Automatic annotation (TrEMBL), chain A:
It comes from the Eukaryota. InterPro entries: Globin, Globin-like_sf, Globin/Proto, Hemoglobin_a-typ, Hemoglobin_oxygen_transport. It comes from Oncorhynchus mykiss (Rainbow trout). PROSITE patterns: GLOBIN. This is Globin domain-containing protein. The lineage of its organism: Eukaryota, Metazoa, Chordata, Craniata, Vertebrata. Signal peptide: none annotated. Residues 2-143 form the Globin domain. GO terms for cellular component: blood microparticle; haptoglobin-hemoglobin complex; hemoglobin complex. GO terms for biological process: hydrogen peroxide catabolic process. Belongs to the globin family.
TrEMBL record, chain B:
This is Globin domain-containing protein. Belongs to the globin family. One of its GO terms (molecular function) is oxygen binding. Residues 3-147 form the Globin domain. GO terms for cellular component: blood microparticle; haptoglobin-hemoglobin complex; hemoglobin complex. Keywords: Heme, Iron, Metal-binding, Oxygen transport, Transport. PANTHER family: HEMOGLOBIN FAMILY MEMBER, HEMOGLOBIN SUBUNIT EPSILON. It comes from Oncorhynchus mykiss (Rainbow trout). Gene3D superfamilies: Globins. InterPro entries: Globin (IPR000971), Globin-like_sf (IPR009050), Globin/Proto (IPR012292), Hemoglobin_b (IPR002337), Hemoglobin_oxygen_transport (IPR050056). The keyword Metal-binding applies. It comes from the Eukaryota. PROSITE patterns: GLOBIN.
Amino acid sequence: MSLSAKEKVIVKDFFAKVSSRSDEIGAEALARLIVVYPQTKSYFAHWKDLSPNGAPVRKHGITVMGGVYEAVSKIDDLAGGLLNLSELHAFVLRVDPVNFKILSHCIMVVLSMLFAEEFTPQIHVAVDKFLALVALALSEKYR
Amino acid sequence: MVQWTDFERATIQSVFEKMDYDDVGPAALSRCLVVYPWTQRYFGNFGNLYNAAAIQGNPMVAAHGKTVLHGLDRAVKNMDDIKATYAELSVLHSEKLRVDPDNFRLLADCLTIVVAARMGAAFTADVQGAFQKFLAVVVSSLGKQYH
């Protein structure tokens, strides 16, 4: 499964269009992750405040969304471009890759909520594929 | 038996009460056929499914989307025994329709995305949690009679 040239354009255009609210998207997506999938809190046991609207969650959501935008800029070579992030997730964070799928779903729910008109099925499928490929690139160094 | 909090019960009743079935049903099914094109395998006699525009304009897809969404009404009215409520439908999907149960999960995800779009800010994290828990029970029940 790979992105066609047309899909890469769709992804780049859509993320550019929503970039002014990228912080909000990231914060909201991570908040949803820990509320709807409470098992993901296990990765953040070191935070004093695990409330979905608290500062640590919102700040980390913004960081994660920054990673997504980095992936957009490296859309032509995700595995190569995200090597450092893959090493981070594989050796330091050791996040079970099943969580990438769950977070992708949360990101898309937020995109659908905030951009109901724009997040058409055609854009949804391109973004879904893109996030799946990002997850794959992040899993590169796992074993 | 699944345990539901008062919030979860109230949320599910409220979400479905406010839902426009004629809009959400077709939107969810057509989105599923576009985003997960392999699901089209079950609709060989639905005519033109060649591209997203054709799928979204297809009247058979729209009609079937409404049918499927109304199928959820039974679970909404019988939250305390969804498994028994769907036993017959599970057999139907397994033995007659031969639908891979993973498709229920795919459709549930698309339904979540559509409901999020319609509800906007009202689709809070807690509402999403309740909605997804409900759909997970439905999906599990529909897969129960497969053997």
